[in-house]
Amino acid sequence: MLNPTPVLHDSSNPFLDMLSRYERAAEILNLEEGVRTFLKTPMRQHIVSIPIQMDDGTIKVFEGYRVIHNDVLGPGKGGIRYAMDVSLDEVKALAAWMTWKCAVVNVPFGGAKGGIICDPRQLTKTELEKITRRYTANMINVFGPDSDIPAPDMGTNEQVMAWIVDTYSMHKHNTVSGVVTGKPLILGGSLGRKEATGRGVMDVTLAAMERLNMDPMKSTVAVQGFGNVGSISAKLLYDQGCQVVAISDVTGAYYNSKGIDIYAALKHSENNKGLLEGLKDAEKISNDELLTLKVDVLVPAAREDQITEKNASKIRAKIIAEGANGPTTAAADPILNDLGIIVIPDILANAGGVTVSYFEWVQNRQGYFWSLERVNRRLDRAMRSAFNTVYETSQKHNESLRIGAYILAIDKVATALKLRGIYG
Ligand code: NAD
Questions:
Q1: Is the CB of 303 under 6 A from ligand 1?
Q2: Residue whose C-alpha is closest to residue 221's, from 207, 236, 237
């Protein structure tokens, strides 16, 4: 019998947290037990062994997974993660997350996720390529532009996607660029994909500010994490006139009450192996201090479990825009709610990435590529519209934006499921 829910490890596990929010939304929707179980149960789970001849001649066998959580709304969509702590349970939970995220932003995809237990930093480029190709060959009947479309995630990148396109295309005897997204531009990637998640964070933050009658030009922002999502969110909010008073990365947090010059910070990080260490014109503070600064907007864009029941009562931001996946634990939700803090949940706030992934897939199918302006305009429109729908859903049910987003997503998938019916 299938285990309907991922096996979860402890009370601050982001996936367990996600499940508790799912249950709450399902309760509000009054979903019947069978549908509730159906929507928690992954539709397909694939486990493959990946034997590789290493550069030193030895043979090693890696384990890889791909889970299609739900394809009721369209083909599976989700990244592939290369990390030592990948597990089938984690992949199952992340795949479910993708189902809700796609539904929230109205992207006609289901949820999927993949992973290989390996440490990409300990592998040579040749070994990485072999692992990727063998994994793809094993998944030849799983992946496909109409069935399941992978993308990069932790430990994978454009190059890995290029190897997947090539391997898949070799087996199919023609070039199938739409089998993955997050590809290099020259192989059919989309303009604007790299900035998409940060741009989506900016879109929903501005939409929330509008609702609260806040002026971006008079607002202060703190951003945790200065990688893809954090640095782009910081740059775009800075471009909108916000004063970004604090930014951070693994080396610590950097604060200037008069605002940080984000372009100077980007340049510094670029010339400093991607790190903010040694940033000028800013006082070094701790990452914990950054989270509790008195700012208008806080963007956690680093990792999960940053806002917990331990520090939630100290948060002084008016808006939290979750650039990262799972930065707030379920136990922190009611505390933030009681403080009147508006939390734009991850499944909405960071869905700009999957939205432009969808645009990439559309362009691949059309064989016609859009200008950056067109990509950005459509992304802005999609994110704004998703924000408004989530906002209205949460108002209607007198719930937080997070529960509103889950209600919206689960209702969509459940409605589609009921229309399609149960085959068999
Ligand atoms: P990244 O690796 O590019 O950047 C992560 C940043 O966080 C780095 O600057 C790192 O130094 C910093 N960091 C790590 N630990 C930290 C800590 N304890 N305190 C402060 N900073 C810390 O990763 P990314 O792609 O920007 O992803 C960030 C988050 O956003 C992840 O949760 C990811 O799942 C989520 N996300 C990313 C995308 C995307 O398109 N990249 C899309 C959706 C969600």
A1: yes
A2: 237
Q: Identify whether the C-beta of residue 193 lies closer than 8 Å to the C-beta of residue 357.
A: yes
Quote the ligand 1 centre to 423 CA distance (angstroms). Answer: 41
Query: Identical fold at 43-178 and 194-349?
Result: yes
Residue of 15, 102, 249 best suited for mutating to test ligand 1, as the one with most atoms within 8 Å of CB: 249
Domain ranges of the chain: 43-178, 194-349
Considering only the top CATH level, what class is 43-178?
Answer: alpha beta
- Comparing C-alpha atoms, which of 123, 157, 156, 115 is closest to residue 53? 123
Tokens of 249: 């990365």
How many whole angstroms from 263 Cα to the centroid of ligand 1?
19
| pLDDT string in tens for the chain (424-residue length) | 333 333 333 446 777 888 889 999 999 999 999 999 999 999 999 999 999 999 999 999 999 999 999 999 999 999 999 999 999 998 998 999 999 999 999 999 999 999 999 999 999 999 999 999 999 999 999 999 999 999 999 899 999 999 999 999 999 999 999 999 999 999 999 999 999 999 999 999 999 999 999 999 999 999 999 999 999 999 999 999 999 999 999 999 999 999 999 999 999 999 999 999 999 999 999 999 999 999 999 999 998 899 999 999 999 999 999 999 999 999 999 999 999 999 999 999 999 999 999 999 999 999 999 999 999 999 999 999 999 999 999 999 999 999 999 999 999 999 999 999 999 8
Atom number of ligand 1 nearest to Cα 353: 40
pTM above 0.85, yes or no: yes
Tokens 């209607």 -> residue: 396
> What DSSP assignment string belongs to 307-369?
B-TTTGGG---SEEE--SSS-B-TTTHHHHHHTT-EEE-HHHHTTHHHHHHHHHHHHHHHT--
157 lines ligand 1 (CB under 6 A): no
Which of the following is catalytic: 113, 235, 318, 412? 113
**CA–CA separation, 341 and 413 (whole Å):** 29
CATH class of the domain at 194-349: alpha beta
- CB of 182 sitting under 6 A from ligand 1: no
92 a catalytic residue: no
